[in-house]
Write a structure and sequence with these properties.
The chain is mostly helical and 120 residues long. It has two helices and two strands, in the order ββαα. Helix 1 packs across helix 2.
């Protein structure tokens, strides 16, 4: 098999199964612009396995799902990090509020003691 399995490296159609109303097995074609290294790796895989374009499309689909999963994991990690930051910020905020309340209690108690002493 020759090395010209993918003629255009800028866009490659990827078939993805999506459920739609009325037709559960319909196919959507999504155009992506993969990195050149991805295209080279897919070409090499198809040539090594002595396969046709259908197998190349399957390899592209598999790679696309891996990239999509990676993106989802990265987004989840970012969300988790932001949640940790918010939690820390909340803990710091509640700590400051508690200190202020304690300070107000102490001032209030001190003022009460002073007022008792002046009345006596």
């Amino acid at each position: 098999m020759n090395g010209d399995l993918v003629k255009k490296e800028s866009t490659i159609p990827i078939e993805q199964f999506k459920k739609k109303k009325g037709n559960k097995n319909s196919l959507n074609i999504i155009m992506v612009s993969p990195k050149p290294n991805l295209v080279k790796r897919l070409k090499k895989t198809a040539i090594e396995q002595n396969t046709n374009m259908g197998a190349l499309v399957e390899a592209i689909i598999e790679e696309w799902f891996l990239l999509k999963k990676k993106d989802e994991n990265e987004r989840l990690n970012e969300i988790e990090q932001k949640l940790d930051e918010l939690t820390l910020s909340f803990k710091n905020g509640t700590s400051i509020i508690r200190k202020n309340i304690q300070s107000m209690k102490t001032k209030s108690e001190t003022e009460r003691i002073k007022s008792k002493q002046t009345t006596l």
